[in-house]
Amino acid sequence: MNDCVEKCCKFCKKVSLYMCPRCNAPYCSLTCYKSEQHLQCSESFYKDWVATYIHNNQQSSKYNETKQKMMKILQKAQQDEMFCSDDDDDCVIDDCSDLWKQLTKKEKKEFESMVAKCEFGELVSTWEPWWNKKMEEKLIEDLGSASPKILDVKAIPKVSDVTKRKPSDCVKYDLLNLLYGYIFICRLYNGDHAEFPSESVECIMNISPVLEGKNFGNVGEAIFYTIQKVTVKNSEFTIPWITAVSAIEDVQKIVEGPNKLPTVEYVLHALNDIKKLFQITQQLLKKEKSGRVATSQCKKTLKMSIKKIEYYFCWASEYGSALIDLLPEIVQEKLSALANTSFHELKIDSMKEQPQERKLIEEVP
To answer: What is the rounded distance in angstroms from the CA atom of residue 54 to the CA atom of residue 68?
Structure first.
């Protein structure tokens, strides 16, 4: 993005921040991107987008067929188990090998095919993010609680109580980067990130470097740094570009908050959840009796990270309006990223290699 900053928009001569992936024309906004001078190129992009959408729907129907097949296999196995008598030791299914023996050759073949194609994800219901819900209540503390508690925002210290330094202008951008990292681990674990605190913390630290001192100067840098980390070829994650881009809308929803008028309630909510993950990981490390240097260094890093999260918590409570003011830029970055989707997916497809077996997340040492 920095390469395009000093160029002028081809359509209105203002400073451009983006570049069309098809014709390489610099432009400054969605209005210029869809202008008459660029109509042929932009219409071509939207036609490709519709074609991709139709193709994905066709693929979805194939997955539904596979899902139905797998459900039949599981239902048959369950029925076979129900017919077994409690007094008949030969019928009791104690482990997976016993269950496997109950399947026919055709069912075994279908099962092995699903394993090879990694299609079991279609059998798991997708988690509904808490930030999609709009409500009139104040800040929620417990994400999964049936009766959520309200955090006392007035009890949050002011920035001046934490440090004598005046907040830097980059704090709002750094906080966006951290929020994106949080959203990524929430979706990576399908809402079960609290069940994997150490892995979640390591993932956040890997893709959101702000807790270790890195700063960002604008919305695009803050968001696209992490998008590049999770989409680059042979990275630890390598998720599709469109999946990474969709998380920008999640950032937007968190910054908007639960009510009709934007508030920082969801931002504080997310920071509270991040802090809990780091604190639990810190407690787990304290229980370890290892005297390794790596473990000692990790404890120090966690301690400093928690302090920084607490600082963001104070800043968001006091200066959250500065974050809300970034909403138009967040929306613009989302639209620009969507406009570049076809280009990036084509680039990734052309660079695909034979996948190598590797761990998704390493344990925190």
So the answer is: 22
